[in-house]
Input
Amino acid sequence: MRLKSIKLAGFKSFVDPTTVNFPSNLAAVVGPNGCGKSNIIDAVRWVMGESSAKNLRGENMTDVIFNGSGNRKPVGQASIELVFDNSDNRIKGEYASFAEISIKRKVSRDGTNMYMLNGTKCRRRDITDIFLGTGLGPRSYSIIEQGMVSRLIESKPEELRIFIEEAAGISKYKERRRDTENR
Ligand code: ATP
Ligand code: MG
Output
């Protein structure tokens, strides 16, 4: 499974609609300090359902919306779309047969969120669900940030277990069991 492209609009410093394509398995984003490199990673995390503003380097969830700059007024909403190549069928279940999976999230100033999966409105839950067990997801090990390796080494056994369970593909079933027990 490979990330093919990301579309950003009104998200942090990306006020104008911008599409970033990743044509091969290896891509590097380079640029001067403050140009928006980390904002792209925040966007990936956010669209996959991140619900902590702190993990997105903000205080409130609406801080991801472009809040104006010297000559530009703030905008009312932010949206991100990721397109994954799923030709290796890493995503199982209902979406397994799709060669491409698109996920989209939109947020407005009043804090309302909207999620879409291959063009159909869905719940946040539906998005987090399809990535369970793939190693992808807002807090999974597919995004390795500065300090994360040492945090892993120093983490408590129960925190480490979460990563191992995701790598082993167990997290999906644990989540389903939790869901059933809560019904
Ligand atoms: P470095 O090389 O220092 O890590 P970077 O390329 O990762 O830099 P980012 O942290 O991605 O840079 O981008 C920071 C920029 O994004 C800052 O200029 C900041 O003002 C801008 N920014 C963040 N949130 C918003 C927002 N909501 N509205 C407008 N601009 C924003
Ligand atoms: Mg950075």
Notes: The chain has a mean pLDDT of 92. DSSP finds five helices and six strands in the chain. The beta strands are 2-9, 18-21, 77-85, 100-108, 113-117, 120-122. The first strand starts at residue 2 and ends at 9.
